[in-house]
Specification:
Residues 556-582 are annotated as: Disordered. It holds the Pfam family COBRA1. It comes from Smutsornis africanus (Double-banded courser). This is NELFB factor. By secondary structure, the chain is an all-alpha fold. The protein has three domains: 43-155, no CATH class; 156-372, no CATH class; 419-551. The protein has 32 helices and no strands. The chain has helices at residues 2-6, 18-26, 31-42, 47-58, 63-85, 91-105, 115-123, 130-138, 140-145, 148-155, 159-181, 197-201, 204-213, 217-234, 238-252, 256-259, 265-277, 282-293, 302-311, 313-333, 341-354, 356-362, 372-397, 414-422, 424-439, 443-449, 464-474, 484-499, 503-516, 522-531, 540-558, 560-570. α20 (313-333) packs antiparallel against α21 (341-354), α20 packs across α23 and α29 (503-516) packs parallel to α31.
Amino acid sequence: PGRAAMYAGLQELGVANGEDLKETLTNCTEPLKAIEQFQTENGVLLPSLQSALPFLDLHGTPRLEFHQSVFDELREKLLERVSAIALEGKVEERYKKLEDLLEKSFSLVKMPSIQPVVMCVMKHLPKVPEKKLKLVMADKDLYKACAVEVKRQIWQDNQALFGDEVSPLLKQYILEKENILFSNDISVLHNFFSPSPKTRRQGEVVQKLTQMIGKNVKLYDMVLQFLRTLFLRTRNVHYCTLRAELLMSLHDLEISEICTVDPCHKFTWCLDACIREKFVDNKRARELQGFLDGVKKGQEQVLGDLSMILCDPFAINTLALSTIRHLQDLVGQDTLPRESPDLLLLLRMLSLGQGAWDMIDSQVFKEPKMEVELITKFLPMLMSFVVDDHTFNVDQKLPSEEKGPIPYPSAIPEAFTKFLQENRIACEIGLYYILHITKQRNKNAFLRLLPALVETFSDLAFSDIFLHLLTGNLTLLGDEFALEEFCTSLFDGFFLTACSRKENVHRHVLRLLLHLHHKVAPAKLESLQKALEPTKQSGEAVKDLYNQLTEKLELRKSSPAEVTETPSMELPLPTVPTPASR
């Protein structure tokens, strides 16, 4: 079959091939004469060449080598010419030339030496004839060999085939995100949200999808449909990130054919700038509000897309960080949340983002109603926690009276716990407030609010993104891990309540201990090691992490001398200034 492929299609064009030569030689009486005649009839027909060929014979250059080099040279010239035709003259004329060329050459498409030319002609045709596309699609090798420009023409009418191409990329994307969240490198400076939007868009999957879509609106719509369907099926918010990254990747390449027809383009562009700064400033807040207020009657469906853009964890992170910053500013200004339009807009966008799944699932496109109590009760309560901290800090500095030092308030208002359990937006903001105080190394506030995290709305406090950020911020409280009370509150009171029912929590605790085991009191470490032992049902990731931890602890036991040195090396760490906490 390999030899047959070499000559595929020549007969149809009336060109003699190897089989013809074989037949001639089988049926002739004088083989040498027959070969000479075959060479004359099928060689390069240039009179001046006939006298030059014997010179090559004298130099021992085989005729095959000569013909091969002439062939390669001609093929290069032809490829250059095809690319030139695709750019010159009137549009109709140039494509007519290319179509004629395709008609003449297509029968040779399976001939390896000619295939690149046929593929090049198809690549430059904006509309390859349907019949030819079907032939390419039916042949695995041809389909594989053709340019992405031709594949796009095939894909746009074959959603299932396009889905097969896109699906492995989407799986890879989700896997990459999860690998970052579970990475063994725990740091407060480099976390899931550290890379800028522009850097993220350079990722392999986004680049490949951008390349596959080109300027084809139909293919772009198909990818968005895949992302919506997968988001609905799995509730995985990373699909929302990819939706925004893909649009912005096409924006970077200035592909106006797509950007101008995606109604979310300008909103996403503006939000992208906020995500880059990790803050929504007043000017951009006005712009974003303008887009939301500008959704016209009859076009409400765009809210489904906007909600998906706002459900991207990078958007939620930016909105939540901005909300916490606004609340702190309001404390300083003696202003209530309901009096701040900027804060209300942040809540409106958070609410739209958090309601994305319900909206797309129900196909009811209207903004979710904001619960009044969130603004009148929950946010003022968070502000009162900020005030508690200020008061406590001032008290500490005052000369102590006879009554002794004033203790830090330890009770949590029951309403706070109830809000975290029943209201999604309150829960999200509450969790970000806890991340904020941890980053500020505010142990008192952290221990006070931690019990409220055991039961939260939809178990948000045990979600990967929150635990990834929390473990990172807890490294700043490293020295507290030596204290029994702190460890009991954190591990027994929080982490271990969910370890057995949630494998991801088990993984995050092991990640944290791998990083901070040398800070934990030995007795506590031993009981944690027992409590965290994997069960038969545990997945490979948990077992692997547990084994890593066991190895580290064995090493510590076998070389106690080094252990005593480790803390002394790390002592200066707490005094290193941390970046201004947001």
